[in-house]
Amino acid sequence: MFIMLKEVKRKIPSITAVSSGAIASDYQRLRVESVCSRLGLVSFAYLWKEDQSLLLQEMISEGIVAITVKVAAMGLDPAKHLGKEIAYLTSYLHKLKDLYGINVCGEGGEYETLTLDCPLFTKARIVLDDFHIVLHSSDSIAPVGVLHPLNFHVESKATTISVSDSNGISILSADKLASVFEVQGDCLGRCDAKCQSLDDASALMEVPGHKLNLSKTKRKDTFTIGCSLQVSSSNPTGLQDDLKIVLKKVEVQLTGNGLGWENVLYVHLYIGSMSEFGLANETYVKFITQEKCHFGVPSRSTIELPLLQVGLGNVYVEALVANDQTKRVLHVQSISCWAPSCIGPYSQATLHKEILHMAGQIGLDPPTMTLCAGGPTGELEQALVNSEAVAKCFGASISTSAILLVIYCSKRIPSSERIRIQEKLDMFLKQRRSLQLGKESNSTVLDPVFLYVLAPDLPKRAFVEVKPLLYAAESAETVAETTGQEIGLTVKPNYWGIKEADWHNSCFQKCIIRGKVCSVVLSITSELAMKICRESYGADQNAWSYEKFTKECCMDIISRFCIYLLDKILLDNAFYWEDATIIRFYFPTSLGFSLETLSVIFNTSFKEFAEMSQMLQMGEEPIFNLVPVLGAGKSATSMDDMITCELFAQKC
Does the reported pTM lie above 0.90? Predict the structure, then answer.
């Protein structure tokens, strides 16, 4: 295939894409995608994941006349079923599907066909005059036979058939029919693209006036590495140089742990300007390639963040890493009607230890790869449909299996429309949940955590990007056994003199799968922040005033409260800090803090906690990531938290 398509491309330079008929076979799709990737072609697979029963009927009703030329499945007899038209066999194929679970379109190799007539054959059809049957295997259960044509002729059609699109416009003209090229190429060499040398990235590691910020969670088998560049205003650099430095640093960290890019499950790529998204991709693909990631490239989410406003460079990267090779990656590069393609080194989803990390989904119409109409709510609905299509491939659903749903909202969404975003999400999940439970009455429904983040811009100028995190249980019984309520501790730890109070429950959302997963989002609003600071003054609460709120001492109080509450939630549910794989604090740039200042405050509080509790080991780098945003919160209408924390912990 590679040799043929390379010669075709040489003879017909205008060709930019290849269409294949893969429906459910990853083997077929991946072969075509691999060749297309090496030749710089786009892969079209518009039948991918289509319902095979409906597809078979549609092909027959559209006038495709095809006969079986090979059978190799239980219930298909070479003597009876070879040479028969698919239209004649369709009811029998559905019977075999019910009995033995065969693919009615033969996608599993149950049968192969030869097309004798179809709408594309505008002037003539093929007539098979004679053939004989060769029995390859006389197996009593699933014999294998092949039809060998002996004689055939071409029969002219009485009337010329015009092939038109849905608008009635002819799509086959005489000049197009005449554009037939004979390919006669010798054996051609491979033309795999090689990764560009990254020596220049090493040279950029030390830039005068610049400082690399590094963070790493403490779990040994699955952890997050965060890396950003703190730049000097007197010596600014561009996005590509910044990304080279940051990715090289992450690569050094991976190598230092005996790992590589193949161990990365997920990448959060934060950039300072979405107008440079193309430049970011150019650099990204030089580090993370198919060749380096033999088990599949990591999934990815990309958003624009106000990095420069907090003293950072143009790029911030978070990489979720696993020290094993048990991940399962879904990477469909073909354009289809199923879900948006991922043409490049990032995948739709990565499954690792029952956690499905899904790439950020925007409201792209899969077959056209353009943003759908309908504004923010229309894009959200399409993004959710796309996410559901991906989740279905892993036997999951965003309506019943979601642990966390992060909704990135563009600042271009008017404030008046944000409530509609939340209403659309709630309605979609409710409707899909009803459908899901109708099909599987014994399904367990998780109660997910919601996080809304206000961002300056998103890819393709989208209004919304959805990032789901799902629990894809190995079996339905596993889910039923692992969901549960709080365990509760008889002895409650007390740090910094913070006393347990009922109102603390209003600060967080959580999703707990007992013994497996703990997902938490803390939302510290202005009102809660003032309450936290007032109570820290003890009996002299009247001495506190709003004017003091922006001072570093008040943020110090808030950081301690966040750590205290996270610790309490973890312990209440029999989790520990060493189980945490993600600890992320979002803060709005309107606070007026630089990332460096906040990092010192939170790191100091974590060190104090580690010393008091003796339950957390601190190293040189922070165990958390600080993410600057325009706003964040637990609802689309209140993305105005002072601090929002996202924590994810998982038992081995």
Answer: no
